[in-house]
Amino acid sequence: MKKARIIGTGSYAPDSILTNQDLEKRIDTTNEWIISRTGIKQRRIAAPEQCTSDLASEAARRALDMAGVKAEELDFIVMGTITGDYPWPATACLVQKKIGATNAFAYDLSAACSGFVFALDAAAKQIATGSAQKVLVIGAEILSRIIDWEDRNTCVLFGDGAGAVVLEATEGDHGVLSTHLHSDGNYWELLYQAGFGSKHSASAAGIDERLPFLKMQGNDVFKVAVRMLTEVAHEALDHNGMTSSDVNLFIPHQANRRILEAVAKRLKFSDDQVYINVDFFGNTSGASIPLALDEANRAGRIQSGDILLFDAFGGGFTWGSALVRW
Ligand code: ACO
């Protein structure tokens, strides 16, 4: 079976920066509280005219450019997002149009903060079965549009951004070595967005103005996230006969620093094995892993042959890991 090798990475974050000091002026919070509870110092916010497909297309162009692949060469585009431009069509189709990937089939996948890892799994399997040769995997979000900016429990946590990777079928031993995915719908109410689905009529969003906003039970999410992120990372290592010392770079979903440090400690990773950039972007949900990956890659942190471990957890609940040989 062919492996899916990452041959290009790209990311895009909007220019506008919202700092903790900016938030102090809007809601009852402090820079100290936000940093001590989350590690987040600032987040990027999309301009009013930008849609998720714009962020995603820019990240995609950068990944294609690094890979030296033309958009028309892509067979498949899969995008993890919970903040697409519209409920439908799939935002992946809008990206396909914007970048000119005329020969690709495209769809979105809804796995919240696990979206990129779930999408990477779908892409790797299309490649393994021979259905696709070159695939674009995207994670992109404009969470600022579904945040209740009066709710201090949630609005300090999230940001906007996009990341993408280009995968190519290869016979060699580089590429995605394994993926492990899980879901448990029993937890759905701990983290969700009520508006714009079939549960409520479209007009209800006008009647209940808080319906479109993200809702979260932060404490409960925290505990389950730490447990599941740890378990599914172990699953990846055990499956490949590896231990944490075999991993060159651990790139977890950038939820918040406390979650990431708790997971890294349980997995016995040293600080230099863990990539964290949540301080500067906040939690960008499905975009966070490819955004961090691209930053690490462009900073020269990844060498050919390195073992990378991606680890994600999000609404649903969904969680998953992917082990990659670079
Ligand atoms: N500024 C100041 N005070 C605040 C703020 C704020 N921004 N937000 C909440 N508080 C207050 C609360 O109202 C509460 O006050 P009270 O005791 O008077 O009621 C107090 O701080 C403590 O609240 P807790 O919820 O206990 O705070 P906690 O230490 O648990 O931190 C947090 C909250 C940061 C949300 C934490 O639970 C967390 O990180 N949860 C995980 C959430 C997450 O990452 N979700 C992302 C999606 S899932 C994922 O990506 C993995």
Contiguous runs where pLDDT drops below 50 for at least 5 residues: none
| DSSP helix fraction | 25-40%
CATH superfamily of the largest domain, please? Answer: Thiolase/Chalcone synthase
Secondary-structure element order, N to C: EEHHEHEHEHEHEEEHEHEHHHEE
**Overall pLDDT:** 96
Q: How many structural domains in the coordinates? A: 2
Query: What is the SS-derived class?
Result: alpha/beta
> What is the total tally of β strands?
13
Number of helices: 11
Q: How large is the radius of gyration? A: 18 Å
State the end-to-end CA separation. Answer: 18 Å
User: Could you say which small molecules are bound to this protein?
Assistant: acetyl coenzyme *A
Strand order of the largest sheet: 1-7-6-4-5
Per CATH, the class of the largest domain reads Alpha Beta
The CATH topology of the largest domain corresponds to Peroxisomal Thiolase, Chain A, domain 1
Keywords: Acyltransferase, Cytoplasm, Fatty acid biosynthesis, Fatty acid metabolism, Lipid biosynthesis, Lipid metabolism, Multifunctional enzyme, Transferase
Family: Belongs to the thiolase-like superfamily. FabH family.
Subunit structure: Homodimer.
Pfam family, one: ACP_syn_III
Describe what you observe in this structure:
- By secondary structure, the chain is of the alpha/beta class.
- The protein has 2 domains: 3-173, 3-Layer(aba) Sandwich (Peroxisomal Thiolase, Chain A, domain 1); 177-325, Thiolase/Chalcone synthase (Peroxisomal Thiolase, Chain A, domain 1).
- It has helices at residues 20-26, 31-38, 52-67, 91-99, 115-128, 152-155, 204-207, 218-239, 257-266, 278-281, 288-298; strands spanning 3-12, 16-19, 42-45, 76-80, 105-109, 134-142, 160-170, 175-183, 191-193, 214-216, 249-252, 307-314, 318-325.
- Strands 1-7-6-4-5 form a 5-stranded mixed sheet, with helices on both faces. The protein has a 4-stranded mixed sheet with strand order 8-13-12-11, with helices on both faces.
- α3 packs across α4 (91-99).
- The longest helix is centred in the last third of the chain and has 22 residues, at 218-239.
- The structure holds acetyl coenzyme *A (ACO).
- Acetyl coenzyme *A binds next to α2, α6, α8, α9 and β12.
- Residues 237-326 form the Beta-ketoacyl-[acyl-carrier-protein] synthase III C-terminal domain.
